[in-house]
Amino acid sequence: MAANGKMSTGNEMVVLKTSEGDGPKYVKDSPRDHPIVIIGAGDYGRSFAGRLVKTGFRVVIGRRDPERRRPNVPEGVVVTSHSDAISRGKIVILAVPRDAYSDMAELKGDLTGKIVVDVSNKEKLDTEKSNAEYLSEDILDKSLVVKGFNVVSAWSLESGLVGGSKEVPICSDDKEARGEVIQLAKDMGFFPMDYGCLRAARDVEAIPLHLLPGWRFATKVMFGLLAFLSIYVLFQGPLYKYVKSGVTKDIQHFPGKGFNRVLAMLALTLLALVYFPGIIAAFRQLAYGTKYQRFPTWLDTWLKSRKQLGLLALLVASLHAIFSACLMSPEYYYHMYEKGPVIEGRQFYGMMFWRGELLIFTGGLALALMSVLGVTSTPSVQNAMNWREFVFVQSKLGFACLFVGTAHCIVYGSTGFNKMYLYVWYTPPPALLVMLLPCLLILLKLFLLSPCLNSRLMRIRRGWESKPKATPV
User: Fold this and answer.
1) What confidence tens digit (pLDDT) does each residue in 15-58 have?
2) Distances from the Cα of 428 to the Cα of 236, 378, 422, angstroms
3) Are 87 and 80 in contact (CB under 8 A)?
């Protein structure tokens, strides 16, 4: 309570007297000057208290019945009643679910003027007002409600912030209260993000409810391509032979050899899709003569999903390498081996042709380059690189990887491109089909690298804009 009888909000300036006689100095309160109050002794409340203690804060937990068996709280944490706990601090962490908000009405007087941090989450996505808005407008209308820490799990708090993002969105209608909670988050080792007013709590509370939002587009593309390529390979080979000749051998080997072909085609296609939106964006910038023209929604989503597409391509390529290592033998890939003698009616094979060894070389090199791309896209490695290094790896090495992967496909399918019996039911062989997109991409990239286009594109990306054409009056 302040000297004038008004309740302290915790934002006062503390007067420090000095012995030198140079007048008083004013120092603003720090969050560490008061204990942090936590209402709720559940898993989250205890974990939050433990993190606060580790970072040097004093903590008081308020319980409805403090005399009951003491919960398993960290050492040094005081457990007392709700009212007593609230009276000791100015920042109150409300670690209770929305169903328990009605009980907070009894503490409305105690919480008047306090900074109340709502850490709850909704159970499902909806268009209704957020938990924090409901708390601020209907329950604690005289408190300074702040939304924050709802994206942090109890496990992450207990494990020293390992296994989860350290970014914490924080929002509130009161700027000073929001600033104090932001400072608290920094002191706890988080990276707070100022989301502005409390209405933004609707977006903040929706964050934990989204399942891998950045991976949805890439995952849908991968499974869509997987289904299409599997059907195409099955239709173009095993199914055709079964319909024409009643041969079931290729159908029986589809889970191994056939699916391995699907994996190879899928990995190369996903890798091409990583770089194709950049080519489209470059031609759009050349056409409009500016880099400030907004991309269409579909292209913007595609550009933002390139990292996920690349990582999925690496996963599929790794599976293809494992399948190939298990299946590489003359029985499966006889056209890659030299024919040996026939003994007792059985064909024996010698060493690989140069084509087989080149196939292994290009495949291994493509996988190695793709692994470098995948490693450098992780945040820990990416943060250790400057912009020029990152662009060199992701752009220059990326197109080198695409070129080597395309060469790998050409080496494998080159023996059948001129065999007309492989063009069944008016469809090209799978190896030829999968080469179309990456070959087109490489040609377009070479076209963009021509001096006349490349110089103009670089000028546009540095901010230059072409003059708009005069419109007739």
Assistant:
1) 334 444 444 444 455 667 789 999 988 889 999 999 999 999 99
2) 8, 38, 7
3) no
